[in-house]
Specification:
There is one protein chain. This protein is mainly α and 193 residues long. Helices cover 69% and strands 0% of the residues. It contains six helices and no strands. Helix 4 runs antiparallel to helix 6.
Length: 193
């Protein structure tokens, strides 16, 4: 893929997720990425098992496991937030690149960093309000409607996983700026020769 000047897009703001090892430190995400992937796969697998069990039991006995819905919703939220963290670690998060691809390289970097700043603000707000919500549920002793478990057990994962996403967003911004500094240094060295 090339920018509007015909220069190949080789830095980490390229929206395909296959960043070069030079721009992402070789192993984007590190060992924690494997844990996040396993957690997302576990959540997805449990949702499938709960849904399958519910369908089979309903088909065979006309009884529904309606109470399992709160587990399924909780697991879906966990899977979504962990998936967002994985997407930022791999540089595969959703974005509209129509305009980004048409900008010059320096402008593209600034726009990408601006997008990451807005994303940081969004997940910081989710973390703050999620923590406030969880604390309120804990203080008032709210319980879930289906099983009667304390509601904060489900909602505490919203601020915690938002914090993980914030870490991944900041990590991505750091990789972008590091790649930019490396490109600038190579341009200075190449221009001096």
């Amino acid at each position: 893929m090339s920018d509007r000047d015909g220069i190949p897009i080789e830095f980490d703001a390229e929206p395909h997720g296959n960043a070069s090892p030079e721009t992402n430190g070789g192993d984007a995400g590190g060992p924690w990425l494997k844990i996040e992937e396993a957690l997302a796969a576990l959540a997805m697998g449990l949702i499938c098992l709960i849904s399958l069990a519910n369908v089979v039991v309903r088909y065979l006995t006309d009884i529904s496991f309606a109470f399992t819905e709160e587990f399924s919703v909780f697991l879906l939220v966990v899977m979504t937030l962990v998936g967002a963290s994985i997407a930022f670690a791999r540089n595969e998060h959703i974005r509209i690149t129509f305009f980004l691809e048409r900008f010059s390289r320096p402008v593209r970097l600034v726009v990408e960093l601006l997008i990451l700043a807005i994303t940081t603000l969004l997940f910081a707000m989710i973390m703050y309000y999620g923590a406030t919500f969880t604390l309120d549920e804990y203080n008032y002793g709210e319980v879930s409607a289906g099983l009667g478990y304390p509601s904060w057990i489900y909602s505490i994962w919203l601020p915690l996983l938002s914090l993980v996403i914030l870490f991944r967003v900041v990590e991505h911004a750091w990789r972008l700026t590091r790649a930019r500094r490396k490109d600038d240094a190579q341009n200075r060295d190449g221009g001096a020769k």
